[in-house]
Amino acid sequence: MQQSNQGRAVLVLEDGTRFDGRSLGAQTEQVGEVCFNTSMTGYQEIMSDPSYAGQIVTMTYTQIGNVGINPEDMESRRPWIRGFIVKESARRFSSWRAQESLSVFLTRHNIPAIEGIDTRALVSHLRDKGAMRGVLSTLDFNTENLIAKAKSFPGLAGMDLTGEVSCQTPYPWQQGLWDLEQGYRQIESGSNRKRVTVMDFGVKHNILRGLVQAGCDLTVVPTDTPAEKILAGNPDGIFLSNGPGDPDAVKHGVRTIRALLETKIPIFGICLGHQMLCLALGAQTLKMKFGHRGGNHPVQNLSTGVVEVTSQNHGFVVSDSALPDTLEVTHRSLFDGSVEGVRMKDKPVFSVQYHPEASPGPHDAHYLFKQFADLMR
Ligand SMILES: NC(=O)CC[C@H](N)C(=O)O
């Protein structure tokens, strides 16, 4: 029987691989890098993590949407994914906090999504061939057209997306972590607390909450804030956030970090912030084959030997070759041995590739926020 286009969606990769399924989001079309995340929970936090700007995300867990969408679990002001791919979306959502369904949320934000495709086959393909450019459409079903559209996406290498996701003006942040009784706690600023400037390359809210909970009063500043302006605020510490795209393309940010490193102010970086810190110190970054995205990545802390199960989301990595002498590797991935954390040998400066704020993910690495606060004391 002829299928009507209503309700159909298609995913086509740049190599011509095609998946036909049902539309789960907006009637539209988007190109981007097709990647996958292996977390079993936390789809809302993933969709609203600014680090995913420019990407079409596949969830490997087979049923998504069962707890709907709520205002508290947003990791930033809006979702940033270009498109969303799931095996099966829950027909009914159920949670005491839920206010809308996954499908309504995606449609409201004009994001195309597809369900009912063989996500295992898609992920095996991406794992073998590497992350690829692709197009997700509910409008055009012609394979040749769609391959050309997929190829029109320039790819994430060389792309600075921090300007799109960062705040436009500085703002204070005093919200602490979630508590079952009170929800998010508002924490008063005080003289016993440390004043930290957060460089917002696309920061997740739970990173800000982790810092507040560890004893920091925060001022979040836009990605293009010059070093002089940051230093004029006389902060006790500087935090370099996560964010989307290629760290090596954020030239202004790397220059700013280099200038900040002239001082003795403690600095902590996560993910994109970690990569840019390493670049500022003379290291190099590489694009990975398909990246690390999920909630169960084992990382070894090399000073204690302890293994942390971590949350990850990155497609670039600091290269092991050409690490400057000023840096010491503190953490490594037990999946592929890649660099997961560094510190400067002679300064209170350190960073990690993974996500201690979790959200979603295990809390094993939460101690890093306290480690940063301790460095400022
Ligand atoms: N979560 C992040 O900060 C990601 C950093 C960078 N965009 C990468 O893909 O590697």
TrEMBL record:
Renumbered residue ranges of the record's region CPSase: 1-184
Pfam families: CPSase_sm_chain, GATase
Gene Ontology biological process terms from the UniProt entry: 'de novo' pyrimidine nucleobase biosynthetic process; 'de novo' UMP biosynthetic process; glutamine metabolic process; L-arginine biosynthetic process
Pathway: Amino-acid biosynthesis; L-arginine biosynthesis; carbamoyl phosphate from bicarbonate: step 1/1; Pyrimidine metabolism; UMP biosynthesis via de novo pathway; (S)-dihydroorotate from bicarbonate: step 1/3
Catalytic residues as annotated in Swiss-Prot or TrEMBL: 271, 355, 357
Residue ranges occupied by any Carbamoyl-phosphate synthase small subunit N-terminal domain in the UniProt entry: 7-137
Catalytic activity, as annotated: L-glutamine + H2O = L-glutamate + NH4(+); hydrogencarbonate + L-glutamine + 2 ATP + H2O = carbamoyl phosphate + L-glutamate + 2 ADP + phosphate + 2 H(+)
SMART domains recorded: CPSase_sm_chain (SM01097)
Listed GO MF terms: ATP binding; carbamoyl-phosphate synthase (glutamine-hydrolyzing) activity; glutaminase activity
Keywords assigned by UniProt, alphabetized: Amino-acid biosynthesis, Arginine biosynthesis, ATP-binding, Glutamine amidotransferase, Ligase, Nucleotide-binding, Pyrimidine biosynthesis
Cited InterPro entries: Anth_synth/Amidotransfase, CarbamoylP_synth_ssu, CarbamoylP_synth_ssu_N, CarbP_synth_ssu_N_sf, Class_I_gatase-like, CPSase_GATase1, GATASE
Protein name, UniProt field: Carbamoyl phosphate synthase small chain
